[in-house]
Automatic annotation (TrEMBL):
It comes from Candidatus Deianiraea vastatrix. It is a single-pass membrane protein; Single-pass type II membrane protein. Belongs to the peptidase S26 family. This is Signal peptidase I. The keyword Hydrolase applies. Its EC number is 3.4.21.89.
Amino acid sequence: MKKVNAKETFKTLGFALLFATVFRTFFFQPFAIPSGSMMPNLILGDKLLVEKFIYGYSKYSFPLNMIPFSGKILDFKAPERGDIVVFKLPEQGNEYFIKRVIGLPGDEIEVKNGIVYVNGKANKTEYIKKDVLNIQADGIPFTLAKYAYENGYNSVPVYMYKEKNIDNYSYYIYKFSKDGNFMDDNFAKVKVPENHYFMMGDNRNNSADSRFQSMGFVSEDKIIGKARMIFFSSSAHFYEINKFSSEIYWNRMLQRLDKNIES
């Protein structure tokens, strides 16, 4: 029986770790959906591949922001309206966020009665169906979760729409009100500053995004990459191995996220 060489084993593990680090840092980074703010398109349990090289690299692209430089390098392409992007907010502990790009640098953004206007043009919406959104009524003081908590509900009705932006890119969104009279269905006109983007969640009334001071406009150097694909989806936690086979969402596996729903 051949003896296992400890030195060779450590060498192999070292190369594997180096390869994984380089792949994650420069090419594709896995990302777990942390909330329901991007429903109905992304749900808790989805695991995504985020393409990092498309928008270039900044200090936030690297672990612990360890390479200090300003701006972006090797940026092949700028984010477009409709892209689903992952970004960091250093002022919130370098936490990762995932939202959809609604406004580009120089765009004027306004929300009136739940309708988004970009440079004076309305994003077209088409009603699809009524749905029910399950929410953990645990007292989170924000929009739908707050509504559920105050009314003792564990689920609330939502309305699914297809939204088409001014570039004719379509995707699904959730709204809490068909009449556009919910508390964040109106947002005064703002102009997106240079090198910044305006982000919104697809779950419009349950998303902390650029409409709120806690996030505001997102600078381009904080954008990590573009969400490309759901590579795995399960309601089970990583340590609940016994539940994996029964709680995997097979219909969500390998689902592309950069596809126009009308194409």
